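Teaching assistant here, posting this on the class forum so everyone can see the example we discussed in section. The complex has two components, and the goal was to see what a joint structure prediction looks like when all of them are supplied at once.
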Amino acid sequence: DAGVIQSPRHEVTEMGQEVTLRCKPISGHDYLFWYRQTMMRGLELLIYFNNNVPIDDSGMPEDRFSAKMPNASFSTLKIQPSEPRDSAVYFCASSSNPGQGGGNQPQHFGDGTRLSIL
Amino acid sequence: QKEVEQNSGPLSVPEGAIASLNCTYSDRGSQSFFWYRQYSGKSPELIMSIYSNGDKEDGRFTAQLNKASQYVSLLIRDSQPSDSATYLCAVNIFSLGKLTFGTGTRLQVTL
């Protein structure tokens, strides 16, 4: 079975540039999550969607970050303009969930995008 | 107090020994608990889930949940060098309505 697919795997770009990260969730999963992982802060939830609708974006650090889910099989996380402090590994995860808040079922992670902003 | 707390380690155990990893959480109403393994440079991989008080065994792994004391643990029997990784505890924090991860415990299994 295909897992969560993320692209690109690595992205190196200069400060000020727009960055777009992409995610395809597991088919049939109606919850999609975007996380950021750094050594200092660990794994942080940025935003999650249920049935393509953003439910909680309280983890999005600032207005430079935006996320969309135009359909059940695709989501993007965009950073514009990018800054060096955005350098991190960004993970997308998906799950099915009959219960509250997207947390009652395990989440399955993609391989991540390693982002470096110079 | 953090919502989910783990000792960062490293926890060093000899090959063949039992590794015990612990996690405490803040919200007594939490109902879903997960252990993920993350190798360096890789994504988190689900290894155990537990929802009820007591023990749940899967091969060399046993998850233990004590809701009254608000802790969940992971035991790894017959530890192997391939078990060396960071283990993340994740809890569906009821009051937050979302899965929250601890910062992880790094396990080193020595030969």
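For the discussion questions: Chain B has a mean pLDDT of 92. The radius of gyration of chain B is 13 Å. Think about how each of these relates to the inputs above.
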